[in-house]
Write a structure and sequence with these properties.
It is an enzyme of class 2 (transferase). Its EC number is 2.5.1.18. By secondary structure, the chain is of the alpha+beta class. The chain is 52% helix and 7% strand. A four-stranded mixed beta sheet has the order 2-1-3-4, covered by helices on one side.
């Protein structure tokens, strides 16, 4: 099994953590999807990472789809409930975390533009998305809908999202007034799977 991605993508990190937690042996192929010589479009026509190549040659792309595929392998631990309603609720929390990653990535790309071309309106819009998303995640953590003791696809996605905010210095001070979310991600960051997938220092 091969995972196409790069070391700084939070979506790739999410899948890497799942693979490591399930004990699935895989080869990591480091690729930059933003350059013309990228191999990613061969496996995902959208040119986005991660992409997973199975041992029998199937291609899977988009991190929620890959997470679903890995769950279908029926390897412990299970990260998605079998009950459809519970699974749907969990996937919505995962989608919220992924949306925070999306907004953070847009912010990073916008800040990489020449200063005179940057849109403060766009940056503000993304900051507001991130703030609203984090506030709801704080509520989920306070209500124990997200719990570090019950690692699942949602908690993994949340930790990867927060890790990316920290790594790219997006939304500094996000942890203020969100103690339950802080405690959740700090506990997850202690796991070996997260330590092994921490992005390289900039």
């Amino acid at each position: 099994m091969k995972l196409i991605g790069n070391y700084t993508s939070p979506y790739v990190r999410k899948i890497s953590v799942i693979l490591l937690e399930k004990g699935i042996t895989f080869e990591f192929v480091n690729d930059n999807p933003w350059v013309s010589e990228s191999i990613t479009p061969h496996y995902n026509p959208l040119g986005k990472v991660p992409a997973l190549i199975t041992d029998d040659g199937q291609y899977w792309f988009d991190s929620p789809v890959i997470a679903e595929y890995l769950e279908l392998l029926d390897l412990a631990p299970a990260f998605i409930p079998r009950d459809p309603q519970a699974a749907l609720q969990m996937r919505q929390m995962e989608a919220l975390a992924d949306g925070i990653m999306d907004a953070a990535l847009v912010s990073v790309r916008e800040r990489q533009r020449p200063i005179e071309q940057q849109s403060e309106v766009e940056l503000l819009r993304q900051r507001e998305k991130i703030s609203r998303g984090l506030t709801l995640l704080e509520q989920y953590a306070a209500d124990k809908k997200l719990d570090a003791e019950n690692i699942c696809v949602a908690t993994i996605a949340v930790a990867c999202a927060v890790g990316y905010l920290n790594f790219r210095r997006v939304s500094p001070g996000w942890c203020v007034d969100r103690p339950h979310l802080v405690k959740l991600v700090e506990k997850l960051f202690e796991r070996e799977s997260f330590a092994r997938t921490e992005p390289p220092a900039a």
